[in-house]
Amino acid sequence: MAELHLDLVLPQEKRMAEFKSDPEKMKEVNKFLDDLCSKAIKEAGQRKAMEQKKAETSGISNGSKKIGAWSSRARTSARTFATRVITTICNCTNTVRNVVINKN
Question: Which residues lie within the region annotated Disordered (predicted)?
Fold first, then answer.
C-alpha cells in the first residue's frame, strides 16, 4: 500500500490537488472503492435473494407493495452506505491529521 504523507500546513485545496495528481495514491483509492462497491453489490444480491425467498414463502401477492417497500429500503441502504463511506474517509484524514499534529 502506498505511504500516505500529508503536509497539513498547506491549504486543503492544494493538498487535494497533490493527492489527485499522485497516480499511486489514486490507484489505491480506486482499488478501495472498487472493492467496496463489489462487496456492496454482492451483499445486495444476497439480501434480495433472501427477501425473494421470504416473500415466496409468505405468499405476498401484491407486487406494487413489494416494489414500494424494496425501493424505500434501497434508498435507505444507499443513503446509509454513502454516509458510512464519507464518514470513514473523513475519520481517516482526521486521524492522520491528529497523529501528525501530536508528533509535532
Answer: 48-71
Say which residue the cell 444476497 belongs to: 46
Secondary structure string (H, E, C) spanning the chain? CCCCCCCCCCCHHHHHHHHHHCHHHHHHHHHHHHHHHHHHHHHHHHHHHHHHHHHHHHCCCCHHHHHHHHHHHHHHHHHHHHHHHHHHHHHHHHHHHHHHHHHC
pLDDT reported for residue 13: 81
Task: Decide if pLDDT at 38 tops 80.
Answer: yes
- Are the C-beta atoms of residues 103 and 8 closer than 8 Å to each other? no
Q: How far apart are CA 37 and CA 1, in angstroms?
A: 19
Q: Record the cell numbers describing residue 88, joined without a space.
A: 470513514
